[in-house]
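Lines hold sequence, tokenised fold; shown next:
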Amino acid sequence: MPLRRKTTESPSPSDPTQDASADVTSPVAPEAAKKGRPTPSRKEAEAANRRPLVVNDRRAAAKAARAKERAVRDREYQAMRSGDTAHLPARDRGPVRQYVRDYVDARWSLGEYFLIIAVVLLVLGILAGGSAALTIAATFGIYVLAIFVVVDTFLMWRSLKRRITAKFGADRLERGLAMYAISRTLQFRRWRLPRPTQAKHGVYPD
């Protein structure tokens, strides 16, 4: 009985189906995908390593900004309490503003006691209960007091304006100075910030 030989057919080198299957099954080397980019130099790599890791951390930056603003406000508040003119808020700085504060603090002003008197009259009107006469009298007293405060404040600013012009010149009557003086006049002297430089009324600036 003759032996049959097993013949193995070897693919022809020119077989296009074999070439296509080989191309599909062979994996792409990872180095091939990187060949399109230039290799970074040593200086560039060191510079990248030295960059901080949290440059774009907006939350941390906002937190640091808030902490800085809080520290500035605390320093300004302490300066207003202690009289440190170097660290006062911007609205309170300058010799003209200091002169305004000294003049207002030296003068007896009806506006300083307006809030206290108005509260007392209001409480009296409430306690009057059903007495219409007392309620009307308390309300009328508040209106009369307000008129007197307006007149007194006007006289204060007119006198202060002449003093500022004589001492610093008309060009130093900056915008907002009148409201700065009026707002301080309407505050109780003991509660004013920056605090008065003199302990009592009557000591006017030169």
